[in-house]
Amino acid sequence: MRSAAKGLTAILSIITVGAALSLPSSAAFAGDDGNSKNVTEDEIVRALAPAPKKPLTRGLSIGPQTEPAPNAAETKLLQSVRGRSTRSLSSTEREDIAAVAKDKPNIDLEITFDYNSANISAKSLPSVQALGRALTSPDLKGSTFVVAGHTDAAGGEAYNQDLSERRADSIKRYLVEKYSISATDLVTVGYGKSKLKNPSQPLAEVNRRVQVVNMENKTTASK
């Protein structure tokens, strides 16, 4: 991605699937001076918690309403990608995930990695640990989450695609090993430089991110 002169770390963030077939984008957490800061568990929970469901009502001539069944196409897609390796997803499957995830609760976190590497930097571990605690909280536990890697526009497509996948995998591996989150509840996908958050500034740090989306379909997450 960036040259060694740009520093020893390259930056990636975490969000959900959004506009122009990029995952829905929420604001990244940053300090007042514009520098990245570690996000808290509560901030992550609030961002990823599903919206409250509207109370069920009774019609004048029909029986009691029930919760709507999960969308069949969404359920089929999640079942087909859960447990798959990031590298095994086709470009069509990646776009299908983006389309389904675009309206889901999401958050944008900045996570730094060692330069030209998928190793999480020491300064970003608190944010990843906060993510682990949040995903195992009662409000979120059991949902299926998308962890999507993105890069900026520097470098070739194949290189950035591989880097985005490895960094998404790195986050997943940490969450599984340190927080015992089921690997099948974390769907990892890489988008390389294909879904820039800020297309007008293709080399901006905001484009280097890992997105996290709460797919919220606990039916597909059941073991």
TrEMBL record:
Pfam families: OmpA (PF00691). Gene3D superfamilies: OmpA-like domain (3.30.1330.60). InterPro entries: Bact_OuterMem_StrucFunc (IPR050330), OMP_bac (IPR006664), OmpA-like (IPR006665), OMPA-like_CS (IPR006690), OmpA-like_sf (IPR036737). The keyword Membrane applies. Keywords: Cell outer membrane, Membrane, Signal. The keyword tRNA processing does not apply. Its main location: membrane. It comes from the Bacteria. Residues 100-218 form the OmpA-like domain. Residues 1-30 form the signal peptide. It is found in: Cell outer membrane. This is OmpA family protein.
